[in-house]
């Protein structure tokens, strides 16, 4: 049955070269592979220049934690840019929401429910998410229903929420965070350890294989062209190998000797010769990023809402004529962005173990750059969550690599700016060639 | 015979103006089951605007719309679709960046038991309906912007007939088509008509529609010049209505007739 459906594709495939045949069979996105290739190249260069310091478990683990906050926001920025809007206020929302969460858990809740209450972090985080959603809803309402361009509304938001973050405590830094809340920022205790990391890795592998099997089964059901079996197996093996490889790297980064020694002392664990090896495993902020990315990918690919977001980006008038309530969809996108800002604020506040009025300054530009480098077109209509995540990782790699090399701060900004423009230029050429 | 007495759609005294310009000025038209009414007029005569009020794309300033004799509330495209009114727009109104199936089901996606998009089922249905309209069409996985003008047009037509429309509005449906495809659309219109669907056919070229239509309604400067059965008037007389606004004896004159 399925043979009849695959015939035309086979006929076409035979005319292609070996490389093209490979890409056609695996249906891999060559643009995405190019981006990953560029990132690996950057990593290699940093590794050589730093004398092997870059590609170490410790640095890669730190890189993953540093990416989390911007990565979370970049997933939302994709949807905003896809619908031909922009959000310049994400850094300021992060600052304001972070400040409110900090004040809640440091100055308000202890008076009501006492210090070290196990629910403090839940209340603070929930409040932050509600506040983020409310701010996003307000922006979205003004943009969608009052018709003020998103650029202007969020430019206003950039100033308003930064000012608000300052105003709440008159510019005072609030610290330290609640003990449980702090886990969202990573660190030795904010990581899930070796065993749990392997379990997460294995679950991800099962997920990859299940997705491949499910796609094949669905296509078989309706006699659609199938990927060749070798391509399916290749994708499954590579996907699982990469996942488990990353887990192995995270598990190769031990706790600091002092922390491990203290922990051993507190728990009566005998310390072997040469110190105790306790692996970090995946950091909790990275787990959060992973969950956010999965949820956002699901939303954008598998739900009506996601389909409408892309349709609006492709042709707003057509979406409206098709009966889509484009205003409400626009407002929902900004609510989502507000919630993601709140999650990013929690990660960043927890990691810093403090809230400052300058937190998240210029993050909006990193987030937009991550989305754009990740293939989101400012003309609207195209962009992927996974692309934005890789874009965020690429931006963070550049920054942390240059810090590792001791490059001066002004020069760092110059390099990041040039790379952004270069990346988009290369992408423009690529799109022209493949269109 | 009762279906002949009660029009499927009646638009009565419809007006709309854009900043002082009366794009449509007290225009009326009706449509019966299984009938094709051609809406003719120059570019800028107001025919597209008039019909976009029926499809919900524009909100009228005055006038009433009746569907099956009942007054209908049409404030947006969703309302119109609720009454079984489907539209093929002149601009096609396709989301260029998504594929054929996504366009066909835009706004009315099929969903699985989990509430997620059922892309596979939508694509299967898309293959069925496109197979009927354009059997050689194979490019289901590509975004619509990669398709040719004729293919895009067939996607727009397929979208309108996919949902059991009772009233179909076709705004210049053959504008992007070659002679063979135009003939196909003609066949399709006859077939839909036989199914009892009422069709508003909009064109600026009477040769396209004269053979297909049962009646013609001619507009000029936002007003209706007149309405006539195609058997009661000649092509030349209809041309006179379009160009001069002159209503021939075989037609029922409207407010826009110059000799009334």
From TrEMBL, chain A:
Question: In its keyword annotation, does this UniProt entry include Acyltransferase?
Answer: no
Compartment list: Cell inner membrane
Name the membrane topology term.
Answer: Multi-pass membrane protein
Q: Does the keyword Cell inner membrane apply?
A: yes
For this UniProt entry, the molecular function terms from Gene Ontology, in alphabetical order, are:
transmembrane transporter activity
Q: Which family does it belong to?
A: Belongs to the binding-protein-dependent transport system permease family. AraH/RbsC subfamily.
PANTHER family according to UniProt: ABC TRANSPORTER PERMEASE PROTEIN YPHD-RELATED-RELATED (PTHR32196), XYLOSE TRANSPORT SYSTEM PERMEASE PROTEIN XYLH (PTHR32196:SF32)
Q: Function, please?
A: Part of the binding-protein-dependent transport system for D-xylose. Probably responsible for the translocation of the substrate across the membrane.
Q: What is this protein called?
A: Xylose transport system permease protein XylH
| Organism, as annotated | Thiothrix eikelboomii
**Species lineage:** Bacteria, Pseudomonadati, Pseudomonadota, Gammaproteobacteria, Thiotrichales
UniProtKB/TrEMBL annotation, chain B:
What keywords are annotated for this sequence in UniProt?
Answer: ATP-binding, Cell membrane, Membrane, Nucleotide-binding, Repeat, Sugar transport, Translocase, Transport
Q: Name one Pfam family in it.
A: ABC_tran
Primary location? membrane
Instruction: Output the Gene3D superfamilies linked to this UniProt entry.
Output: P-loop containing nucleotide triphosphate hydrolases
Q: How does it sit in the membrane?
A: Peripheral membrane protein
Q: Which domain of life is it from?
A: Bacteria
Keyword field contains Translocase: yes
The cross-references to PANTHER family, in alphabetical order and at most eight, read: CARBOHYDRATE TRANSPORT ATP-BINDING PROTEIN MG119-RELATED (PTHR43790), GALACTOFURANOSE TRANSPORTER ATP-BINDING PROTEIN YTFR (PTHR43790:SF9)
**The protein's name in its UniProt record:** D-xylose transport system ATP-binding protein
The root-end lineage is: Bacteria, Pseudomonadati, Pseudomonadota, Gammaproteobacteria, Thiotrichales
């Amino acid at each position: 049955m399925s043979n009849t459906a695959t015939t035309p594709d086979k006929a076409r495939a035979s005319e292609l070269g070996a490389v093209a045949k490979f890409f056609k069979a695996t249906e891999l996105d060559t643009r995405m592979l190019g981006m990953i290739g560029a990132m690996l190249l950057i990593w290699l260069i940093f590794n050589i220049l730093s004398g092997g310091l870059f590609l170490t478990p410790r640095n890669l683990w730190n890189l993953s934690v540093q990416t989390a906050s911007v990565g979370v926001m970049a997933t939302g920025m994709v949807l905003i840019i896809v619908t031909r809007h922009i959000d310049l206020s994400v850094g300021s929302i992060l600052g304001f929401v972070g400040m409110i969460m900090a004040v809640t858990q440091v100055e308000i809740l202890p008076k009501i429910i006492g210090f070290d209450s196990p629910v403090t972090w839940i209340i603070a985080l929930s409040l932050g998410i509600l506040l983020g959603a409310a701010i996003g809803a307000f922006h979205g309402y003004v943009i969608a229903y009052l018709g003020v361009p998103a650029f202007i509304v969020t430019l206003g938001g950039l100033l308003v929420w930064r000012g608000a973050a300052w105003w709440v405590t008159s510019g005072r830094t609030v610290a330290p965070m609640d003990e449980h809340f702090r886990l969202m920022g990573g660190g030795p205790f904010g990581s899930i350890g070796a065993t749990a990391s392997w379990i997460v890795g294995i679950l991800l592998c099962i997920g990859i294989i299940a997705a491949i099997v499910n796609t094949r089964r669905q296509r078989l059901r309706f006699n659609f062209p199938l990927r060749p079996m070798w391509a399916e197996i290749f994708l499954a093996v590579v996907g699982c190998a990469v996942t488990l490889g990353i887990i192995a790297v995270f598990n190769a980064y031990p706790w600091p000797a002092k922390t491990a020694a203290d922990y051993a002392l507190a728990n009566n664990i005998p310390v072997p010769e040469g110190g105790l090896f306790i692996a970090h495993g995946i950091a909790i902020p990275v787990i959060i990023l992973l969950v956010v990315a999965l949820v956002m990918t699901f939303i954008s690919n598998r739900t009506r809402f996601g389909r409408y977001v892309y349709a609006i980006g492709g042709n707003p008038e057509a979406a409206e004529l098709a009966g889509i309530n484009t205003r409400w969809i626009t407002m929902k996108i900004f609510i989502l962005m507000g919630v993601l800002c709140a999650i990013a604020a929690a990660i960043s506040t927890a990691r810093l173990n403090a809230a400052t009025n300058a937190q998240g300054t210029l993050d909006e530009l990193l987030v937009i750059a991550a989305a754009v480098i990740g293939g989101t077109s400012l003309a609207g209509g195209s962009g992927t969550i996974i692309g934005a995540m890789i874009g965020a990782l690429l931006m963070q790699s550049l920054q942390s690599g240059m810090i590792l090399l001791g490059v001066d701060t002004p020069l760092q900004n110059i390099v990041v700016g040039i790379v952004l423009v270069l990346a988009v230029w290369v992408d423009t050429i690529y799109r022209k060639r493949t269109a | 015979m009762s279906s002949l007495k009660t029009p499927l759609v009646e638009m009565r005294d419809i007006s709309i103006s854009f900043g002082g310009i009366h794009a449509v000025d007290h225009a009326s038209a009706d449509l019966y089951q299984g009938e094709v009414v051609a809406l003719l007029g120059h570019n800028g005569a107001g025919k597209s605007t008039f019909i976009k009020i029926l499809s919900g794309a524009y909100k009228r300033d005055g006038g009433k719309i009746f569907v099956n004799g009942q007054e209908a509330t049409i404030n947006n495209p969703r309302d119109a679709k609720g009454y079984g009114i489907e539209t093929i727009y002149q601009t096609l109104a396709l989301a260029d960046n998504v594929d054929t199936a996504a366009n066909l089901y835009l706004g009315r996606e099929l969903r699985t038991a989990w509430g997620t998009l059922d892309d596979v089922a939508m694509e299967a249905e898309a293959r069925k309906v496109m197979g009927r309209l354009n059997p050689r069409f194979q490019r289901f996985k590509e975004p619509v912007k990669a398709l040719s003008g004729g293919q895009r047009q067939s996607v727009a037509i397929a979208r309108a007939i996919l949902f059991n429309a009772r009233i179909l509005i076709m705004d210049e449906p053959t504008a992007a088509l070659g002679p063979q495809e135009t003939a196909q659309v003609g066949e399709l219109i006859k077939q839909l008509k036989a199914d009892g669907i009422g069709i508003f056919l909009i064109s600026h070229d009477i040769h396209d529609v004269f053979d297909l239509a049962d009646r013609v309604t001619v507009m000029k400067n936002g007003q209706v010049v007149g309405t006539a059965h195609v058997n009661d008037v000649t092509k030349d007389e209809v041309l006179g209505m379009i160009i001069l606004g002159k209503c021939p004896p075989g037609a029922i004159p409207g407010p826009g007739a110059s000799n009334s």
